[in-house]
Design a protein that fits this description.
CATH class of the largest domain: Alpha Beta
Strand order of the largest sheet: 1-2-4-3-5-6
Radius of gyration: 31 Å
Distance between the termini: 114 Å
Shape: globular
CATH architecture of the largest domain: 3-Layer(aba) Sandwich
CATH superfamily of the largest domain: Glutaredoxin
CATH topology of the largest domain: Glutaredoxin
Number of domains: 2
Number of helices: 10
Helix content: 55-70%
Strand content: 5-15%
Order of helices and strands: HHEEEHHEHHHHHEEH
Length: about 250
């Protein structure tokens, strides 16, 4: 074979090898690109799930987690008292967490009072358990108090109402209460569990129920107001409009 022929054959072989290498590189790049696209899609899916969990409080079974959080954001809480501790007027709500009328008040009337009187610091709102529906209301009330010990009492109350089941139907289980506590933002669930089952908190539920009876309340929710313009707790019954509660707060101050 001549030198020229040998050189041409070598060049042809190298060109073929180069073309083969280029095809192999393209194949690998396509594989890498496909994997990158898959990972990107998976990452977006994970971010969507995480974002959804953060918005819903980590449990998609609960309703209005974000709404309750927004409604109460920036307002001080201590125990089951919502609002500035130094507020001159206290509006007391005696309610049963299983009460459907209390649920309606929490959705339609109480938000206006919170926005107009509590957020401004004119009044604070003190929730007290008045358990009249069934025995299930007692552990529910104690669970709310326990959430209040971690600064999430009103979140628990409002979230419970918005996920309320048929009264005395057995839905107030340990699982349901824990779900509400997590959605309300209770951080230490173990401590909350111990507290809600304690004799002290169960006794507190019975004590506030007895207080409501001494005030001659016969239904829930029932309200009372106390401030510089009242002589002790002044009973209001069950006003059907936010404006009536706002007026009572104004007169009490």
């Amino acid at each position: 074979m001549s030198g020229r022929s040998s050189r041409e054959a070598r060049e042809a072989r190298l060109q073929a090898e180069s073309e083969g290498a280029q095809q192999e590189r393209r194949k690998r790049l396509l594989q890498i690109g496909s994997a990158a696209v898959f990972l990107a899609i998976a990452g977006v899916a994970i971010l969507i799930v995480v974002s959804s969990n953060e918005t819903s409080g980590g449990d998609a079974n609960l309703e209005d987690v974000g709404l309750v959080r927004h409604q109460l954001s920036g307002i001080p809480q201590k125990g089951l008292v919502l609002g500035d501790p130094k507020a001159k007027v206290t509006l007391y709500e005696f309610g049963d967490l299983q009460c459907p009328v209390c649920k309606a008040f929490s959705e339609q009337i109480i938000p206006d009072v919170i926005d107009s009187k509590v957020r401004s610091g004119e009044a604070k709102l003190d929730f007290r358990n008045y358990t009249i529906i069934s025995q299930e209301s007692i552990p529910a009330g104690a669970a709310a108090i326990a959430a209040g010990e971690q600064g999430r009492g009103w979140n628990f109350i409002e979230l419970f109402y918005r996920n309320q089941g048929p009264e005395a139907s057995g839905y107030v289980s340990d699982e349901f209460l824990t779900e509400i506590a997590r959605g309300a933002g209770v951080k230490d669930i173990a401590a909350w569990n111990r507290a809600r089952k304690s004799a002290a908190l169960l006794a507190e539920v019975k004590a506030t129920t007895a207080e409501a009876q001494r005030l001659d309340f016969t239904g829930t929710p029932s309200f009372a107001v106390e401030g510089p313009g009242t002589s002790g707790k002044e009973t209001l019954g069950t006003p059907g409009e936010a404006s009536l509660l706002e007026e009572a707060i104004g007169e009490a101050g």
